[in-house]
Write a structure and sequence with these properties.
By secondary structure, the chain is mostly helical. It has two helices and no strands.
Length: 133
Amino acid sequence: PKQWLLEVERVAPKLKIQMPSDSKEWRNHLQQTKGYKQVIETHFPGTKAQLEKLSSNLATALERIRSKEAFINTQFDHRALDYRQQQEELAQVQTQYTERNECVSKLQEELKDVSEELEVVKAEMEERSTTVT
């Protein structure tokens, strides 16, 4: 704690903010603000006109885009419907394919089992025929 107090005493003067003792500082700020006000008042009308013109141009362009979008939507509406129908058909065909593929796999497995059983029966028959003769 004693070292801490010594450190605080050493650093404290460096941490203090010293404000300039200029008594006219607020007057300078006031003059500067009045100057900014005049600049704004002189440039505002021209800037406002430019911004309004830009705003009207943008509004016109936006309206043209909306009308073209509506036109394109009406032109391609039937194609979008066809596309959706084809997507549904594709989904159905894929489902059928999956089902039939599973069926084929089951039948192949069954064929394999029957073929193995046939081989066993043939081997037994062969063995019996050799023992009979």
